[in-house]
């Protein structure tokens, strides 16, 4: 789960395994004594000296803030006609373990994203008799293969290009093969986060699972009423009415997106509103604020455990060494430059990126500023042998949501995290 804390868990741990590992980590590193729970963040603002205050001064004053609320909030369960008449069980995809039995049952999964594929894995492992995935729109599926993933991420433009048809054709012919009808029509690979799963095609070929491209019309007593559509027919287009019968319905309908509205209003001034921030993470007016994975939209090959650490160390560099700190003017110019480089992108310039583009962002951040050169090894690899010990200690404490002093309420704290 963490590179510094290897865990002995299954390849796809369930909720209880993940929570037990997090609790063990919290105790082992003494974080249970240094963490404040059940604290609702109403606002974050600066005092007259530029120090950050979370809610009110009683919680302390900080040089920097990390917002790590992620992109997934409460589960979204849209109300659909006839749900109250369905005679079987209805569950959200995030609440299957321990609450849902799929053995020898027919499971209907509503949704065509990553949550739907995870629900498919769950149903298959539990011994479901038949699994239907009812998908309103098409998403690309790529194999869980390091070579494939690396080649697809080697797109420094982070967008569809004149050569994008090549990997898309190879995927259709080498991975989808006889199931090529499931591949998106008219939707580029470099426009949306693909699903990564090597086994799904085998499950579909074995007929234990069926992928249905359709619109949901409503529930019936025995299942779900749909409008089946052919490949290339847009959502809401002409199709064939059908009823999919099942014992259990899983709503793989995603999550509400958490809000960053506790930050100052100046963080959201257009055209520099999220995700249009410096390195997609730092609001241009506040380089001492890092919203790691909070503005994330879509990508290929983000390698989260690496880039989250790099973002954290970039923030530390800004806080500890004033000469490295970017001005709002230059942060906005970098955003403008990225917009120009990706002006032909079918999505917003910061709404999709590849791993190679992300590497370019980080390299540009350090290479074009001589004052940051001495920090390069620290930023990219976490090597702190060139840094004072208090800087390395500060990084550890910011990762753990503490100030440099290790005391949440002291005035000389380096950072706050929530």
UniProtKB/TrEMBL annotation:
Keyword Phosphoprotein found: no
Highest taxon of source: Eukaryota
GO molecular function term, any single one: NADP binding
Entry keyword annotation includes Transcription: no
Keyword line: FAD, Flavoprotein, Oxidoreductase
Pfam families for the chain: FMO-like (PF00743)
Family in the record: Belongs to the FMO family.
Name used for this protein in its record: Monooxygenase
Protein source organism: Staphylotrichum longicolle
Organism lineage: Eukaryota, Fungi, Dikarya, Ascomycota, Pezizomycotina
